[in-house]
Design a protein that fits this description.
With 86 residues, the chain is α+β, with helices and mostly antiparallel strands. The protein is built from 2 helices and 4 strands, in the order βαββαβ. Strands 1, 2, 3 and 4 form a 4-stranded antiparallel sheet that branches.
């Protein structure tokens, strides 16, 4: 008998909204979340905040800004979500 329990959540729909905030550290990400009033708009964190490195497809115009080509060190990122109709 398995003791593993699955958390049942509603599946995401194509109308759910996601916002990812990228910053130098957790405090910067949190400041942007607060400044933009995302809690009042119904956004909550989808997964824990943490260090991310970014990899982009070859030739992507974003590579000059956030990819290895820009020489950026890993940043902190957090993704927030609100359900459609919230």
């Amino acid at each position: 008998m398995s003791t593993h329990q699955h958390r049942h959540t509603k599946p995401h729909t194509d109308r759910d909204e996601f916002i990812t905030i990228i910053g130098e550290d957790a405090e910067e990400v949190s400041r942007v979340y607060a400044k933009d009033g995302l809690a009042a708009k119904g956004f909550s964190i989808l997964h824990r905040m943490g260090r991310h490195s970014f990899r982009l497809p070859e030739g992507s115009p974003l590579a000059a800004h956030i990819g290895e080509e820009a020489g950026m060190r890993p940043m902190v990122a957090a993704t927030y979500m609100r359900r459609a109709g919230s």
